[in-house]
């Protein structure tokens, strides 16, 4: 009869100690669990923090253990790997990171990737086949639109989209039109949309999806939650199946790494794991270690940036050279966007759209005269960043589509950091003098 170690595939003496999630009846919060969840110091010489495990492969205790590990890795046995096998499949740093990422949205599973786009690409490749149709909200991050329209389009995969603020009826109509074209492989959302900050009604999408498909034929709903998650939005609670993250942004938070993540339902992420095992899009151990460091201060950084954004946007909205400010804290009471915000979000975030009076000339003048804020793409870092989406991140988007989606030449996207808010206001005031 096999002993317990042989059944599990992991020797009992080597299993990590279970991390606490509660003290008595008191449930611990994610920001507290970020300090040690998923890591047992006893397995790393008593080290308080996980070391970086720079190894390509792992030694098996016995040949039987090796066989069992590979049965899980290859899918011959459900449940995945019982231990560490090879660094294209898993590693200690990645597994600790994935355990902690699940906590923010109370997700069943989490996977990490070498970039946000490798997470998105691996997700789409897992579920999409020639002849399929992807339904998505618009706009999306330009590279995501490129992946769907240009790259997957080469393999006979098509798409239909609806505007971010669409009603349930409008979403249902697009889903019906997509069903007439082929098998709907996925419903892919981005909320708030990049760079317009428009919100998607995830609950309406879920209701439309469930009404259009039988229980055993429903395509997964995935949503890019980078702009507000995981602190200010938790779309799994509104009916999404998978939350997508560019961990480069708020999760990393220091503009010094590139990474991606998926959190959500195990039944959808298990096949994505198999795809990741095959094509090798897993995150490297050093970057995983850096993210573990960053997650410890995620709540502090996002909270400070959010507080700064309120002050900065209050200043900008009344400036004579500003046409409008696309900030979620300024949504018109009673509007559909405000209704979605109240149901879906706990904060307005720190990334917003600034529409200047004029066009590209005025936008460039503003950007070229910033002192504290940096002229750079990306968002969610400790420093304030500003860019011109129409001329930079969304340059590849056709002009007519940019106009339809509100990505105009006078649009500046700003991500507020953790600097002093009064200093940032002084910086923007000075830059606006040049407009």
TrEMBL record:
A Pfam cross-reference name: Cys_Met_Meta_PP
Q: Where is this region: Disordered?
A: 1-29
Cited SUPFAM superfamilies:
PLP-dependent transferases
Which residue ranges does UniProt annotate as crossing the membrane?
Answer: none
Keyword set includes Transmembrane: no
Q: Which PANTHER family match?
A: METHIONINE GAMMA-LYASE, TRANS-SULFURATION ENZYME FAMILY MEMBER
Family per similarity comment: Belongs to the trans-sulfuration enzymes family.
Which protein is depicted? Answer: Cystathionine gamma-synthase family protein
Q: Which organism is it from?
A: Sphingomonas humi
């Amino acid at each position: 009869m096999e002993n317990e170690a042989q059944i599990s595939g992991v020797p009992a003496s080597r299993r990590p100690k279970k991390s606490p999630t509660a003290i008595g009846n008191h449930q611990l919060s994610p920001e507290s669990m970020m300090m040690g969840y998923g890591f047992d110091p006893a397995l790393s010489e008593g080290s308080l923090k996980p070391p970086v495990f720079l190894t390509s492969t792992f030694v098996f205790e016995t040949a039987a253990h090796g066989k069992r590990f590979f049965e899980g890795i290859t899918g011959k046995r459900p449940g995945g790997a019982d231990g560490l096998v090879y660094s294209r499949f898993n590693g200690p740093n990645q597994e600790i990171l994935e355990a902690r990422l699940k906590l923010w949205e109370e997700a069943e599973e989490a996977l990490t990737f070498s970039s946000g786009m490798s997470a998105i690409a691996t997700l789409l490749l897992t579920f999409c086949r020639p002849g399929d149709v992807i339904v998505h909200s618009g706009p999306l991050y330009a590279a995501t639109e490129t992946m769907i329209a240009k790259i997957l389009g080469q393999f006979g995969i098509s798409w239909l989209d609806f505007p971010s603020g669409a009603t349930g009826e409008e979403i249902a109509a697009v889903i019906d039109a997509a069903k007439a074209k082929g098998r709907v492989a996925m419903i892919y959302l981005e909320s708030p949309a990049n760079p317009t900050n428009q919100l998607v009604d995830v609950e309406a999408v879920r209701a439309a999806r469930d009404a259009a498909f039988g229980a055993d034929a429903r395509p997964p709903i995935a949503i890019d939650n980078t702009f507000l998650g995981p602190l200010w939005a938790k779309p799994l609670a509104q009916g999404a199946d998978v939350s997508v993250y560019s961990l480069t942004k708020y999760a990393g938070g220091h503009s010094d790494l590139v990474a991606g993540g998926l959190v959500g339902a195990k039944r959808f992420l298990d096949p994505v794991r198999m795809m990741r095992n095959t094509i090798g899009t897993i995150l490297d151990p050093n970057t995983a270690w850096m993210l573990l460091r960053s997650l410890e201060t995620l709540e502090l950084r996002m909270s400070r940036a959010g507080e700064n954004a309120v002050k900065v946007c209050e200043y900008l909205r009344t400036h004579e050279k500003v046409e409008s400010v696309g900030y979620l804290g300024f949504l018109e009471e009673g509007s559909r966007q405000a209704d979605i915000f109240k149901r879906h979000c706990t904060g307005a975030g720190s990334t917003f759209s600034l529409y200047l009076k004029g066009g590209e000339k005025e936008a460039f003048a503003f950007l070229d005269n910033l002192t504290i804020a940096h002229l750079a793409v990306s968002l969610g870092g400790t420093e304030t960043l500003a860019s011109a989406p129409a001329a930079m991140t969304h340059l590849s988007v056709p002009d007519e589509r940019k106009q339809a989606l509100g990505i105009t030449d006078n649009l500046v996207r700003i991500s507020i950091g953790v600097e002093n808010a009064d200093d940032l206001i002084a910086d923007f005031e000075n830059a606006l003098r040049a407009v």
